[in-house]
Design a protein that fits this description.
Keywords: Membrane, Transmembrane, Transmembrane helix. This protein is α+β, with helices and mostly antiparallel strands. Helices cover 37% and strands 25% of the residues. A 4-stranded antiparallel β-sheet has the order 1-2-3-4, with helices on one face. Strand 3 and strand 4 form a beta hairpin. The longest helix has 17 residues. It is rod-shaped and about 65 Å long.
Length: 97
């Protein structure tokens, strides 16, 4: 119902209310495996390592007599990170990117 009201006429939330919304969203994402990097001023930055497909890497390691293990080690050492930025605007809307 409040979404039908133009944003210019809606009341803005206090910093404490925005902080509570942000903390709840950060806690939800942390339970999903994200690591918290920073939290400040209505914004949080979270990250996690990209997953490695262990099934096929294990099969290929067995089939090649361990030779594929070199590729697996290189992938583990050079793993990329996923980054998630969570922001809460003045009206309490949560945005992730």
């Amino acid at each position: 119902m409040s979404d039908s009201i133009p944003s210019s006429t809606r009341e803005t939330l206090s910093e404490d209310a925005r902080s509570q919304i942000l903390n709840a969203e950060v806690a939800k994402q942390a339970s999903r495996g994200w690591n918290v990097q920073t939290v400040a001023a209505g914004q949080a930055v979270l990250s996690r390592n990209k997953r490695i497909g262990w099934f096929w890497n294990t099969i290929l390691t067995i089939l090649t007599g361990g030779l594929w293990l070199i590729v697996v080690i290189v992938r583990v050492v050079n793993r990329k990170k996923n980054t998630l930025v969570i922001t809460v605007d003045a009206y309490g809307k949560v945005r992730t990117s």
